[in-house]
Amino acid sequence: MTPPAFDLLIKNVRVVRPHGNAVHHADIAIAGGKVVRVVPGLDASLAKTVHDGQGRLAFPGVVDAHMHSGIYAPLAEDAVSESRAAAMGGVTSSLNYFRTGQYYLNKGGPYRKFFPEVLKTSKGRFHVDYGYHLAPMDSTHVQEIPELIRKHGVSSFKIFMFYGSHGLHGASDAQRDFLMIGKDDRYDYAHFEFVMRGVQKARELLPQKAAQISLSLHCETAEIMTAYTKIVEKDRSLKGLPAYHASRPPHSEGLAVFIASYLAHETALPNINLLHLSSRKAVQAALMMAETFPHIDFRREVTIGHLMLDVTSPAAELAKVNPPIRPREDVEYLWQALLAGELDWVASDHACCRHEMKIPKRYFGNIWMAKSGFGGTEYLLPALVSEGSRRGMSYNHMARVTSWNPAQRFGLNAKGDIAEGFDADIALVDPARSWVIAAKDSPSTQGYTPFDGLPMSARVDATFLRGMLICENGQVIGKPRGEYLFRPTA
To answer: What's the pLDDT tens digit per position in 125-178?
Structure first.
């Protein structure tokens, strides 16, 4: 008897690919964790297992390129719970920003000692495939960049531009202790330059991988934010999200983009990612720099939080994040830029911060005492399909900015498309299923969400990771099966 040709056959779906301007009715045949055929009318008897897609949209599994697993809770816990939330939302690849210093593992030192502990803790805990971006916080880390790429498959790095003299949650005079760097190290513009030189040196040492080695930057200017925070704190007419927006003004983002871009030009580093641009001024600055330095391949990121929330959100301090949630006019501009193709991918910036840590009861209503960041990876794809469809965004464009573009940038060469030879990472989406976001329905341990109460018109029905059904109807299935993404992948 001839053995089945396919491990899984997903029948009767509308396949959304990141290229073109149409979706196609087809069946998806999977063997060995890979897509092997995408055509209509495949014989169900050729497969061990058949899943009826019931006419749903089949999106490539989401590559959530900006997450923070392990920032506010132990990594061993966060890896499990927050990857469950990711799977619920159609995310199949989770790329997490990580660094030494306070939060995360709460220790400093070289990455040669630090990162193996991260990998050991992560193994066997993620429900989706996972990888890490690392932030060089001191001179030792800069020297370690080539080895991090060669030995550990970390091909993307990060600079937090405001950390030098501004805290994670607001103004701070104790940044050296927070960053856990030595007395001879400074986290300043000179350090940023040396990080860029270090990344470019690694690209030159590893030319076969250079195209997918990049540097990401959180662009805000510490000095401006510190000064404006003092002004805003004294202004009793401002509170909540409007106050936090005013304390970290958009021109702080724009100026940081200018500085980062010029340093990239000076250091001849061509692969620059400008993270979570939140305002008109930030995006305009980024576009100006792309014209000024055409030899630099800038990529521009936006988060689903900055696309869905504004300063009038009833979530108030629960929506505190860096950069801040902005006024509605900035949100509308971000959508215009996204629809025009001026933003390259949409991420969640997921940072699960449980209610008791986000803001203790005695500080309710005080934006300054709330911690920064919140989760939302589970809402990335449903919210983008819901709101994007309303605004005329094509499904193909959605697939580009949630899967293909981040996969290509960050060296996930078998991710981001539903085509022969690609990993069988698939999210089945019902584009006409109305529901309302409620934190209680998420497997995240956060316990609340700033998205609470937002009506959605699309929902992820099932998520497949390398051909394995890992979530269906909001229920995560089986033990964690995520694999570490050594990048760039083959």
So the answer is: 999 999 999 999 999 999 999 999 999 999 999 999 988 666 665 665 566 677
- Cis peptide bond prior to 323, omega within 30° of 0: yes
* Distance from C-alpha of 94 to C-alpha of 92, rounded to nearest angstrom: 7
Q: What is the CB-side half-sphere exposure of residue 374 using CA atoms within 13 A?
A: 30
Q: Judge whether 416 and 18 are in contact, CB under 8 Å.
A: yes
301-307-312 Cα angle (round to 5): 135
The values of phi and psi at residue 214, to 5°, are -145, 170
Residue 1, pLDDT score: 58
- Secondary structure element (H or E) that encloses residue 408, with its range: helix 405-409
Encoded tokens for 311 = 């300063």
Label residue 96 exposed, middle or buried (CB < 10 Å: 0-12, 13-18, 19+).
Answer: buried
CA 466 from chain center: how many Å?
Answer: 20
Cβ neighbours of residue 451 under 8 Å, at least 6 residues apart? 305, 308, 309, 315, 376, 379, 383, 437
Integer Cα distance of 207 and 58 in angstroms = 36
Closest by alpha carbon to 322, among 453, 229, 423?
Answer: 229
157 membership: H or E segment, kind and range: strand 156-160
Work out the widest C-alpha separation in the chain, in whole angstroms. 80
For the chain, residues with pLDDT lower than 70 are: 1, 164-176
What is the number of other CB atoms lying within 10 angstroms of the CB of residue 332? Answer: 14
Could you identify the residue written with the tokens 């501009």? 333
C-alpha span between 164 and 186 (Å, rounded)? 7
pLDDT given for residue 424 in this prediction: 98
Calpha distance 441→373 (Å, rounded)? 20
| All domains in the chain, ordered by first residue | 6-52 (2.30.40.10), 61-412+432-456 (3.20.20.140)
- Structure tokens belonging to residue 241: 């999200």
Please enumerate in sequence order all residues whose Cβ is within 8 A of that of 127, keeping only pairs 6 or more positions apart, or say none: 80, 83, 84, 86, 87, 465, 470, 471, 476, 480, 481, 482
End-to-end CA distance of the chain: 35
pLDDT at 103: 87
Asked if 309 contacts 349 with a C-beta cutoff of 8 angstroms, the reply is: no
